[in-house]
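ok posting inputs for the 4'-deoxy-4'-aminopyridoxal-5'-phosphate job
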Amino acid sequence: MSVYLDYNASAPVDGRVIDYMVEVYRNNIGNADSRTHNYGENARNIVEEARKKVASLIGVTADEVFFTSGATESNNIAIQGLREYAIETGRKHIVTTAIEHKAVLETVRALEKEGFVVDIVKPDLSGRVNADDILSKIKKETLLVSIMHVNNETGIIQPVKEIGEALQEKEVLFHIDATQSCGKLVDEIRELKYNMLSFSAHKLMGPQGIGVLVLKKKKYKLPPVKNIMYGGQQEKGIRPGTLPVALIAGCGKACEIAEDEYKKNNKIVFDIKKAIQKEIDESGISYTINGNQDFCVDNTINICFEGVSSEALMLSSKMFCGVSNGSACTSKSYSPSYVLVAMGVPEEQIECSIRISWGANTDIEEAIEGVKALLSTALQFSR
Ligand code: PMP
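and the output
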């Protein structure tokens, strides 16, 4: 039997979310933007109910929630959508970090080719960027700072709280990629100061293919983001295209469940981490954990088993657990994790590093069995 320990790539959909989505698919036909019949109206009601649930989890108002196809699209809109405003204001400087998801890094690189100036700040071995390093890059031409809340590979929490507070005094827009923290660091997210925030439903046990861009109003005005695709007026024109009603319903349901259960879930996830850590310690294997664990979320361990190639270990342990190295979005070919490289982790340590990630519906006994099997394979390789 194999246990799935790759929740940071995608978490399984909660059964209650599936049931609700199936109900919506079966009983609600129509386009949420059709005004001429009840079918459209019913679809619209489902969408608006979901929007309220998302807003409630994040701590914003429903009119600040915009549905997209996922965090990749949300990040693209948050960044590329500022193109026109940047040209108008002559502010074309962007600050971000070297450990962002490709959906941010590739987007800012594309803008760089159009004449934008991008500062990419590296973290240190702790896996965290320094807030002062980010703030010291700000100049009068700075348009945007884009930083992730939690890194997908290491689980390390970034200083978005401090950065957001410092930026409040300035005219700089602040975007947070909260894909790995949404539904987990619920209280923290509600306290953050930002203009834009992105996430995907599938990381919090919702369906794949639906995400959210939160655009926070300031003095009743949305940030100056424009659509990057052309089409209809859906989502106030910011994200044109027929709304995927059942996916949106699933996203809303996942947010509702996360809001109701996050305290209980965070405790379960923490207990699993302790149990996994205990197995690792008792196995006698030589290891190093990547990133300062004082800043790590409780559902992730990025660990180097000394002298054990991660590729070989993952192949040999496929039958009993699904773990990963690097991000799923860059895993088609092996190249050392750019996140660990940016942190300054030595190459031989990177080659031996894997990411184990789990969620509240991971069975603790199964997780322990999977990790035990992984450890005994790693021990064989390390001899
Ligand atoms: N940002 C982060 C931090 C992520 O972990 C991911 C998914 N790995 C994304 C953005 C992109 O999400 P999606 O593939 O659902 O668009």
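notes: The chain has 13 helices and twelve strands. Residues 70-72, 101, 103, 148, 152, 177, 179-180, 200, 202, 327, 329 surround 4'-deoxy-4'-aminopyridoxal-5'-phosphate (CB under 6 Å).
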